[in-house]
Amino acid sequence: MQETQNKDQVNEISIFKYLDPFFGHMYLDEIRRLHIDEIIQQRLNEGVKNSTVNRVLQKLRAVLNKAHKEM
To answer: What is the pLDDT at residue 33?
Structure first.
């Protein structure tokens, strides 16, 4: 169980490190669908599976929803 949690944390950290260059310099109200589409296209061009792209989108969605609720 501990190994799974550590692996999940490592995966989550790597996802956020991947997203940082895209959104690290932006305010929430500046993020548009165009930016998300660019991430999707770049990941697909890198040859990752759709499930990998979906995991990235899931984490991004969770962060954006949390930020929206706290506004």
So the answer is: 95
